[in-house]
Amino acid sequence: MYRLMSGPQDRELFIEFCLQTILYQPLSQSGGCPPGLSIAQTNRVTGKHPLQSDILLMRKLGILNVIEAMELAPEVVYPLYVAACAQGQEPVVKRGEELLKKKAFGANLDDSNLISRLFSLFNGSAGGENVAPEYKVSHGNAALRTKLMSIFCRSLTAANSFPSTLQCIFGCIYGSGTTSRLKQLGMEFTVWVFKHAKIDQLKLMGPVILNGILKLLDGYSNSESDAIARDTKTHSFQ
Predict the structure, then answer these.
(1) What is each CA distance from 12 to 16, 100, 148, 167, 190, in whole angstroms?
(2) Which of 14, 31, 53, 209 registers the highest number of CB atoms within 10 A of its CB?
(3) Rounded to 5 degrees, what are φ and ψ at 146?
(4) Angstrom distance (rounded) from CA 163 to CA 172
C-alpha cells in the first residue's frame, strides 16, 4: 500500500500519522492526551476505542518495519526513530535504537526542517496561545526530551532557532514534568547556544536566558548536596 502513495504530500501525511502512533501511550484515566500529542491526534490514532497494549505493540513494530522498507532519507525518518527509542515498550525501544543506528546515522543535524520537527516534539504547542484546546500538542515525555537535548547540543541550527531555542531552554529549567537531568541538559544547551548562536539571535535570547538562570540559581541553597544540581550550577557559570 505504501508504495502506491501518489506524491510527497501523501508520504508526509503517512509519516506524520506513523509518528503519532509511535508517540501514543495508553492513558491511565480518561480525558487528556499522551505526551507529544493533541487530543485530535490521539483520537486519530485510536479511532473509537483505546488501543490495547498488545495491539499497540504490534502496530508500532509494524510501522517501524514499513518505514524501514520505504528507504526514506535519514532526515525524514530520524524523528520517528528517536521517538521510538523513548517509548515504554522494550521491543519498540530496541527496534528504534537499531533503526536509528542503521538507517538514520547520517542525518544532517543542521537541517532546518529536521531541527524544527525535533523542537516540535520537545516543545509541543508552546507559545501557541491561539490554538484550539483539542489541537494543542503536549510536549514529549521526559525520556524523549532527554534524548532530544543530546541532539540539540550537537546542532548549530538548534542554537539559532529562536524562539524554539528559548522555549526549549525554559522548558528544561521551569517546564512541567522537568527533571534534574533535564535542568542539567538545559544548562549544557545554554552554554552551546552562547558559544554558537549568531549575534542577532543572542540579542533576542541572551538577556532572557540570563535572567532565567539567575532565578534558577536563587532557588538553590549553599548546602545543596545533589550532584546534578551542583553540575547545573557549574554549567551556569561557564
Answers:
(1) 6, 19, 21, 26, 32
(2) 209
(3) -65, -45
(4) 14
- DSSP E strand stretches across the chain: none
Give me the helix-helix angle, 90-103 and 74-84, nearest 10°.
Answer: 160
Residue 37, by phi and psi: left (phi above 0), alpha (psi -120 to 50) or beta? Answer: beta
Helices 112-123 and 74-84 meet at what angle, rounded to 10? 20
Residues 17 and 100: their CA atoms lie apart, in Å, by 19
**Angle between helices 227-236 and 180-196 in degrees, nearest 10:** 20
Whole-angstrom Cα distance, residue 113 to residue 90?
A: 29
pLDDT in tens, 166-223: 899 989 988 888 899 998 999 899 989 989 989 988 887 778 877 777 776 666 555 5
Could you give the angle at which helices 142-152 and 180-196 cross, rounded to 10 degrees? 20
Q: What are phi and psi of 232, to 5 degrees?
A: -60, -45
Which residues fall within 8 angstroms of residue 103, CB to CB, at 6 or more apart?
68, 74, 77, 81
Q: Could you tell me which of 221, 216, 208 has the C-alpha nearest to residue 235?
A: 216
Between CA 26 and CA 32 the distance in angstroms is 11
Contacts of 225 (CB under 8 A, 6+ apart): none
pLDDT digits (tens, 9 = 90+) for 82-102: 999 998 899 999 999 999 999
- Cα separation, 208 vs 197, whole angstroms: 14
Q: Are 117 and 20 in contact (CB under 8 A)?
A: no
Q: What pTM, to 2 d.p., does this model score? A: 0.86
What helix, strand, coil percent values describe the chain, rounded to 5? 65, 0, 35
